[in-house]
Description:
Layout: H1 7-12, H2 50-74, H3 78-110, H4 118-122
Helix pairs in contact: 2-3
The chain binds zinc ion.
Zinc ion (ZN) is lined by residues 16, 18-19, 21-22, 35, 37-38, 40.
Amino acid sequence: MAGKPTRLGAGLRGLCPACGGASVFSGFLGLRPACPACKADFRGIESGDGPAFFVMFLVAILITPPVVLVQLWLDPPAWAQLVVWAPVVLGLSVGLLRPFKSVLFGLNWRHKAGEARWDDREAGG
Ligand SMILES: [Zn+2]
């Protein structure tokens, strides 16, 4: 047994941010309502569109330079660029979405982030 993972390590591996003992996912991207290992309550914690946003920009940053360089050096037709890079973009996006979602979920859980409510504003929060 390697011991309790770090918070970032647990997030990257999709593990519970409280104990690191069980997955936070119930499907590919669905989240469990509670940790099966430590019973930490995950209800009301959601990462929203954050993971998709960060993955989209990271993939764009990673893919744009090689696409431009291939275009400048080899000048392939547009369909060839699409055939080569579409699977790379799709693979990177799908592959990165789960770890990003888990890390952002762990950060939201740790900092008790949630949707702002009208009651919070009136209470001075
Ligand atoms: Zn747990």
